[in-house]
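Q: Got a minute? One more chain.
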Amino acid sequence: MKYYAVIDTNVLVSALLKWDSLPGKIVTHALVGKIIPLVNLGRNIKRCC
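A: Always. Here it is, folded:
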């Protein structure tokens, strides 16, 4: 099952600083396709990939 998530920049920075943390796991899941990242473009949220 795939999940959708809005990934905040704080999550990305935390993942880069400590890859084995929960934010790192979230980013890993996004990179392998288990989580589909969403992007907020003003008033509309769009799929990133």
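A: The two ends are 16 Å apart (CA to CA).
Q: Perfect, thanks.
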